[in-house]
Structure formats: C-alpha cells, structure tokens
Write a structure and sequence with these properties.
about 200 residues; mainly alpha; about 0% strand; extended; single chain
Amino acid sequence: MTIDQNNNAPDGETVSTVEGTVATVNLTKRKTQKSAASTKPEAKKPVVAKKRKKSRGESATSPRRIKAVEEKQLQALEYRKMAYTYAQIAEVLGYATPQGAYLAIQSALTRIIREPAEDVLKLELERLDAMFSKPYQAATNGDLLAVGACLNIMARKAKLLGLDAPAKVDATVGNKDGQPFKSQVVSDAQVADAMKKAADAF
C-alpha cells in the first residue's frame, strides 16, 4: 500500500475522500440555493386605489339654493342703487361677467314687481269669494236679483284669472250690404278714361 506523504493516507482513500467532500459541498450548495429560493419573498401585487364615488351636491332647485340666489340678486340690486357699475357688482358678488350681474338685477326687479301684483290678485279673489256666499244662497232659492249678482261676481273672477276665451273679431271689409268688396285689375288706359269722364261731368 502506498502512503501519501502529505496526507498520510493511501492513494485510493485520498481520492474517495476528495470525491466525497466535493459531493457534500455540491449537495450543501444545492440545498442552500433551494432554501434561498423557497424563502424568497413573493412579489406583491400593486395596490390599486379604489375610486371614490363622487357625492352628489345639493340640487340647484333646492329651497336653500333658491333662497341664496334670490338674496344675492337683491344684494346686486342694492349695489346698483348705490350707483355701482355692473362690472363692480360682478367683482364684489362673484359674478363671472358684468352681464351676469345685470341679469341678476333684472331678475330681482321682476320678482319685486310680480310679488305685489300676486298679493293684490289674491286679495281681490278673497273679496269676491266673501261677497259671493250670501247672494249664492239667495240665488239657489230663486231670487233673480241674486242670480244676476252671482253672475257678475263670477264674470269678474273669471276675468281676473284669465278664464274667458278671447273674443273673436270679424275683420272682413265689405260694402253696406255686408258683402265683401271684389277686387278688379284695370289698365292705365281705363284709369285715364275714367278720370276724363269724371272731369267732363263737372
């Protein structure tokens, strides 16, 4: 048996020992790689933010919004009374253009004029209703004067409310017999002849 001077072991044993050591190193390396692969953190999926639903704002026709718009229009009217220009009013109250301030003032004026007229109409209708009750009771009992009074009150009320149909007007033009005039085309010579006969008659 040959003894290796460096390792003090037979040649066959040295080779097998080296081969075993290499195999052990390779096995350990594979296990380490496998372990590292198994412990590798998984890639996280990107988190997509959920879109929030837009909350619906207050309706433009809500009582609060309408009141706010009307108050702003009255403010614009007050500034106009103080001789502010439409451009100045738009700047102070936040209207986009002077035209917007102008329209706001016109709306305020229209409302101011309309509201008293509506109050007067309501008062007149209440008065007519109060006057109608007594003659109506008498009219149902056969009182002809009461019937006439009721009809007058009803006619007045219908006129105020615009319930009557518009009256038709006949605009047909005719002669004294009610027959429409007939049109006729005449020549210049006929006109001249008629004028000559008229002159000769004088």
